[in-house]
Design goal:
The chain has about 300 residues and is mostly helical. It is about 75% helix and about 0% strand. It has twelve helices and no strands. Helix 2 packs antiparallel against helix 8, helix 4 packs antiparallel against helix 11 and helix 6 packs antiparallel against helix 12. It is globular. The two termini are about 20 Å apart.
Length: about 300
């Protein structure tokens, strides 16, 4: 693949992932709660990924000895972060949530230090501080449409914290010989099985026989986009390398904000743009350099 082609794919992936932010905002716009949305997100993911794996003649069986691993990935990669993210998105602008989600590499650094899988670096510490400064700007009274929204910012930050933890778990202990598509399929299946009784018990189950409108369509589109973009991302990692592919995080952040402006007509103060600039700068400082390794 040429470098121009690789950058084209990277832009497409970032734009695809970014559009899931306003789609999530639409999905929660009429009263749907987190667990009900998560269940159908997982079901759609299982069906789509299952079909892809069957067509590719890849296994879909879940090794019993690794059920605990699928459970860990389901909890840290979907159930817990999406529960908090969906809840926060009800109360916060989608663009603000997009900026907060981009904190994953910044939050991953101290976790990696704690697990002993990364080494201390002054540059990365500066990135951590810079990203933190961006968050402080983001929660300032001039950044949010309503100062009362500040209580939902920590809720939104649970999601990137979980994703950072998930990435470090995989970095330290690997995927036990499974490919990323197999891991995501298994985690989605476990996630669906766990979220169904929770959705029923809490009254959050969404009956698909309802009259379909924007929230239902947004949920389906967001789930399908995630599957398509994720599998394409894995393909890009194989072609261009994990360090190159990791740059998609910058595009996801920017496109998430721009899509929110375009689709939801959101507008942000200069403080928000400054905060996003600091977060992106922090991401650049904590990202591994080309000669350093990234987890597969």
């Amino acid at each position: 693949m040429t470098r121009t082609g690789a950058f084209g794919v990277l832009l497409a992936l970032g734009a695809g992932w970014g559009i899931t932010n306003p789609l999530t905002k639409i999905a929660v716009s009429e009263g749907y709660q987190a667990i009900g949305l998560i269940f159908w997100q997982q079901v759609i993911g299982v069906v789509a990924l299952g079909l892809i794996r069957v067509v590719q003649k890849k296994p879909i069986a879940l090794p019993p000895r690794l059920l605990w691993f699928f459970l860990v990935i389901a909890l840290t990669g979907t159930l817990v972060p999406n529960s908090f993210s969906y809840t926060a998105t009800i109360h916060l602008p989608a663009g603000i949530v997009a900026v907060l989600i981009s904190l994953v590499p910044i939050l991953a650094f101290p976790i990696a230090l704690g697990l002993g899988i990364d080494r201390f670096s002054g540059k990365r510490l500066l990135g951590l501080v810079t990203g933190g400064a961006g968050v402080l700007l983001l929660v300032g009274p001039e950044s949010l449409p309503d100062p009362a929204m500040i209580v939902w910012v920590p809720v939104a930050m649970v999601a990137p914290l979980c994703y950072a933890l998930e990435g470090n778990i995989v970095s330290k202990w690997g995927t036990h010989g499974l490919g990323p598509g197999h891991v995501l399929f298994g985690a989605s299946l476990i996630g669906a099985l766990l979220s169904l009784p929770l959705a029923l018990a809490t009254g959050q189950f969404i009956d698909p026989r309802t009259d379909w409108g924007a929230p239902e369509i947004a949920l389906v589109l967001s789930s399908l986009v995630h599957v398509i973009v994720y599998t394409s991302y894995v393909w890009l990692v194989g072609r261009a390398g994990s360090v190159f592919a990791a740059q998609v995080a910058y595009i996801v952040t920017g496109s998430g904000v721009l899509w929110s402006m375009l689709i939801l007509s959101e507008r942000y103060s200069g403080w928000v743009w400054a905060a996003m600039g600091l977060v992106l700068a922090g991401m650049a400082l904590v990202q591994p350099r080309r000669k350093e390794s990234l987890a597969p």
